[in-house]
Amino acid sequence: MLINHDLLNSYGGEIITFKTNDYIFQEQQIPKYYYQIISGHIKLNHLSEDGKELIQGIHSAGESVCELLLFIDEKYPVNAVAMSECAVMKVFKSDFIRMLEDHRHVSEDVHKYISYRLFEKFIMMQNLAAHSAETRIKGILQYFKNYTNDKSLYSYEIKLTRQQLASLSGLRVETVIRRLKKLEKEKFIKIENGKVYY
DNA sequence: ACATTAAGTGGTG
DNA sequence: CACCACTTAATGT
Q: pTM value?
């Protein structure tokens, strides 16, 4: 995990729980807390004017969400939504900042974490900006498999719905479904009972 | 049995 | 591809 729970506790950290589809925070709100996921999954999304959802990222246990907003004076650019039942540790902004000042190594960990997230954004941007649907989908699949150690063929089960893959890639559901079937024929992925293995 | 959600198909622009 | 309409399968209450 990014930051030790005991340390967060000693700086006023408290645990709050969310049910599926609950908001941890919403777009345009002013960031006041540091959030670190204890269990469950949280997605960062944005709804376009016509109602289409763009998923900016999906985070799980041990990771923090939008901590970078605590270092600048801006409102949240995205919503944080619980994708399952979630337990989250939250720490007041001022206490969080004080903790970083008191613990240099923790501060470095946070720097690295933010840097890695930014690095990911570069990769994702390049994938989404000027590529075919097939390349976009492959990019998303690779992005999630990168978090696992097993790199062998079909070792990773994509635990996302076709719709979620669409919201991540900026494509429509139908396109995702059709492309996945094509990728299966090409032996790039395997599909069993609707589940995608990559 | 009825409602809901996700996967999948056809066809048009 | 996006968009629209619709069918099918699986779950849930």
A: 0.92
